[in-house]
Design a protein that fits this description.
Layout (H helix, E strand, L loop, with lengths): L1 H6 L8 E6 L2 E6 L4 H14 L6 H11 L7 E3 L10 H4 L12 H15 L1 H8 L9 H9 L3 H10 L5 E3 L8 E3 L4 E8 L6 E3 L4 E3 L2 E5 L3 E8 L4 E6 L10 H4 L2 E4 L3 E6 L2 E8 L8 E9 L2
Parallel strand pairs: 5-9
Antiparallel strand pairs: 1-2, 3-4, 6-15, 7-8, 9-14, 10-13, 10-15, 11-12, 11-14
Helix pairs in contact: 2-3, 3-5, 5-6
Length: 288
């Protein structure tokens, strides 16, 4: 990946890149993860010779990289100090780091919501971009200046938008008899394991806790870490801070705490050197 990305003038520390080599579009990624879907968006646009300015390209690649089970959450400013599109356009490509992807995706997501997919993609595909100032092309498409659109985005009070569902039925586990037990193999040879160079992880899972209760959570494995985070739609009224907070365990650890009645996303990841294979068991048991 480093060789391919550096050959087209990009920072070797990037998670991935897209370019053209001997007339063919290539995708190079450091790890097989959500970065792949992000770069594939770039690859499709590159292959079709459609390319806008960097903030718009990175923004649309971020939101379209979201999928069920691996959603991308576009968060709107609501007074936060987000870098706006006018300033983002002034940042050179080689300095456009990951911290600028979040506001780029937020603005593009807002454009999709307000103007619709067709209008947004019509703007991004406009061949005038590159020939004329992007702000001029923007105004022609949307009937407002880019500065006016930026202010409308900053003032927007709609809900943050999830590009993909947090949970999918096939990887959602319900409590039966007061117990949830998830077992599997963390092995890079498996097609359902993401990562490879510095980490590995299975696709995110979800658990359904029917009510707020005290539980014992255990994680059996040779290495790795587990976290459990309640989805944002949970009703936390009346719950203790212990019940609401996320849960974290390393391999071999046991945790006894209150947990809020809700759907929780479960993330398992290992950064063990050499990413050796290990079986694992995650168990959540209600305490009387």
């Amino acid at each position: 990946m480093e060789a391919l990305c550096s050959n087209i003038g990009l920072d070797q520390s990037l998670g991935g890149c897209v370019g053209t080599l001997e007339g063919e579009t290539f995708v190079a990624v450091r790890n097989v993860s959500s970065v792949v879907s992000h770069e594939l968006v770039h690859a499709v646009r590159n292959r079709n010779e459609a390319w806008a300015e960097i903030p718009f390209e990175e923004g649309v690649a971020e939101i379209l990289s979201g999928s069920d089970g691996l959603p991308f959450i576009a968060r709107y400013p609501r007074g936060a100090a987000y870098t706006g599109p006018m300033d983002l356009l002034e940042i050179p490509r080689e300095e456009f780091g990951g911290e600028f992807y979040i506001p780029s995706a937020s603005f593009v997501s807002w454009m999709w919501e307000i103007f619709g997919q067709g209008e947004l993609m019509g703007f991004l595909d406009d061949p005038q971009i590159g020939e004329f100032d992007v702000a001029t092309v923007f105004a022609e498409h949307f009937g407002m200046t880019l500065g006016e659109a930026e202010q409308a985005w900053r003032d927007y009070d709609g809900d943050d938008l999830s590009w993909g569902r947090a949970c999918v039925p096939a990887r959602t586990h319900a409590m039966e008899g007061g117990v949830i037990e998830i077992e599997g193999d963390l092995d890079c040879a498996r097609a359902d394991i993401l990562g490879a160079s510095a980490f590995m992880k299975p696709l995110p899972m979800c658990i359904e806790i029917p009510r707020t209760m005290r539980v014992r959570i255990s994680f059996e494995a040779d290495h790795g870490d587990v976290s459990m985070n309640a989805v944002e739609s949970c009703d936390t009224s009346g719950a203790s801070s212990e019940a609401v907070r996320s849960k974290y365990l390393s391999a071999g650890e046991v945790l006894e705490e209150e947990i809020i009645g809700c759907v929780h996303r479960v993330f398992l990841v290992s950064q063990e050197e050499g990413v050796p294979a290990t079986s694992y068991v995650i168990r959540v048991e209600e305490l009387g």
